[in-house]
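Dear support,

I submitted the protein below through the web form. The confirmation email said the job was done, but the results page showed an empty box. After a refresh the structure appeared. I'm attaching both so you can tell me whether what I see now is the final result or a partial one.
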Amino acid sequence: MSKDPSLYTTAIVDDNEQFLLAMKAYLKKYSYINDPSTYVDSIEFISDFSQKPFDIVFMDLEMPSMNGDQVTKLIMPQNPSTKVIAVSMYEDGYSVKRMMEAGAWAFISKTYIQAKIPEMMERIKKGKRYVDPAAAENYTLFAHKVKKKTLADETPKSVDQMNDEEIAEINLTPGEKRVIAYMVQGYTHREIAEKLARSCRTIDTHTQNIMIKLNAHKATEIVLLAYKYKLI
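What the results page shows now:
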């Protein structure tokens, strides 16, 4: 970003209206950010962006109509200078991979977003990328596991591609099964951490491992597979 910071136009794209309002109010404290536009619908955002691109976009990862990585892939060719900041309740390595490969400039957890924004914005103003430290660590672990699988010539199957014997042999740990059980009940990562008296980072690691074992790409897929194949 080389333009005058006072002119930074900003959008927040998230289907949680409470989060939108809180973020909009918080970002007003930064003099170089114009009054943020808010979108609960990613399709409406894409339409507006095609007419007038934003400088900074806070993009939720999981949304009903179109996920954040899909939206990012669509808008970046239109205006490569836009800085997409991925925001998510999930800090697992696969989520980071999805957004950064789609073209996001930064990745930050919703859990600690207000505490991390000052440091992140300073880096973005200097043209530097930012990934929340916990998410970066999870991504490193994820990339290492994927690399080991590739070196061993293991092509991961989704549960839908497995036979009954292979499904029965899925080695979910007791901790992973407890996390899935709470996901099925609709609890967020933070709530699961509180229920199990564990850190959010621990729950993120469990989720990352579950995704690898099931070859699932997001939390909703884990829930659907758990129901369909009675994994817990």
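Response: this is the final, complete result; the empty box was a page-load delay. The first helix runs from residue 17 to 27.
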